[in-house]
Write a structure and sequence with these properties.
alpha/beta; Aspartate Aminotransferase, domain 1; Aspartate Aminotransferase, domain 2; 7-stranded mixed β-sheet; 4-stranded antiparallel β-sheet; 10 helices; globular; binds pyridoxal-5'-phosphate
Length: 350
């Protein structure tokens, strides 16, 4: 027997391209176009590197305290990890231990099926309707757990809180994870529901709305019981995840609510303007409540537009996958970046 037969083989997730070149209009990975809060920069400047001699605080207390103040929770309701990818991956490992399939939409964050495969979790995808809406009834069934990105990625579509609640309530006997990576751009969080449902885990991140994708902070909110199970798995896996500099930067960023609201409002305003311009140029898209628009053009294939924009040093995201291979996911940048994008598209489309 060859040792390779024993290897845990996986097909890894493919993140968006990170070009080395700096003069690119980068609208391909939903990063925030603004820098993080000046308080985050100050925390980095003021950090005493001598502290790195010691192991970090495994509970990331300084960060968790600040999160609990910001979100009106207790520390026991909060779990933090290295980006929400880390949190979600641990959540899959923790809660999905059934022979029944975990369910999520056919078009959604493409890490979900990767984690399911990695951990040998059976799963089943449920097709979105032709407008990329979740069909609620598909989630009111026997299953091993539910994962919903809300708003969904890469579609940008928000599912109403009423329907989320119906799904959480119906699935009382298994965990429902709501991935809210984009919720701060004008959608409604399921966070208020955690008081009522012990099977609900709400996951958020600093990567998009707080402009800190590089520092890697994600968090999960839920009742003490569900959070404690997640902690047990985390502390059986790797105790020292968030480093002390990250903890300090995250806590500092949370103290600057005015800045957070300001950059979020700017992104929403640019998005709404971008929607009008894209419509004028013959694009259509479901209404986005995120920092990206998932658009298709009435005449020109998405792949052609993607290649054309890349030539012009404007990067957007394209997937050659069933059902979405005529769509582009375009991140909302600054007004200036949106203008360059629209001008380039105008040139192509006449
Ligand atoms: C970006 C994203 C994440 C992961 O973000 P992190 O940088 O790991 O916090 C999770 N879910 C969705 C739907 C995302 O788009």
């Amino acid at each position: 027997m060859n040792w390779e037969e024993n290897v845990r083989k996986v097909v890894p997730y493919v993140p968006g391209e990170q070009p080395k070149n700096n003069n690119i209009i980068k609208l391909n990975t939903n990063e925030n176009p603004y820098p993080p809060s000046p308080l985050a920069a100050e925390a980095i400047r003021d950090y005493d590197a001598g502290q790195l001699r010691k192991y970090p605080d495994t509970n990331a207390t300084a960060l968790v305290d600040e999160l609990s103040k910001n979100y009106g929770l207790k520390d026991e309701n909060i779990f933090v990890g290295i980006g929400s990818d880390d949190v979600l991956s641990l959540a899959f490992l923790t809660y999905f231990n059934s022979a029944k399939p975990v369910i999520f939409p056919d078009i959604t964050y493409s890490f979900y099926d990767v984690w399911a495969d990695l951990y040998r979790i059976p799963y089943q995808t449920k097709a979105l309707d032709k407008d990329f809406n979740i069909i609620k009834e598909d989630y009111l069934c026997d299953n091993g757990g539910v994962v919903i990105a809300n708003p969904n990625a890469p579609t940008g579509v928000e599912l109403s809180l009423d329907i989320i609640e119906e799904i959480v309530s119906y699935n009382k006997d298994r965990v429902v994870i709501v991935d809210e990576a984009y919720v701060d751009f004008g959608a409604h969080s399921a966070l208020p529901l955690i008081d009522k449902y012990d099977n609900l885990l709400v996951v958020q991140t600093f990567s998009k709305s707080r402009a800190l994708a590089g520092i890697r902070i994600g968090m999960a909110f839920g009742q003490k019981k569900i959070i404690d199970y997640l902690k047990d798995v985390k502390f059986s896996f790797n105790s020292y995840t968030l480093n002390p500099l990250t903890i300090a930067v995250g806590a500092a960023a949370l103290k600057d609510d005015a800045y957070f609201k300001d950059i979020t409002a700017k992104t929403i305003a640019t998005r709404e303007h971008m929607k009008e311009e894209l419509k004028r140029l013959g694009f259509s898209f479901a209404d986005s409540k995120t920092n990206f628009v998932f658009a298709t053009h009435e005449k020109i294939p998405a792949e052609e537009i993607f290649k054309y924009l890349k030539e012009k040093n404007i990067y957007v995201r394209y997937w050659n996958k069933p059902r979405i291979n005529n769509h582009l996911r375009i991140s909302v940048g600054t007004d200036e970046e949106a203008k360059i994008l629209i001008n380039a598209l105008e040139e192509l489309l006449g």
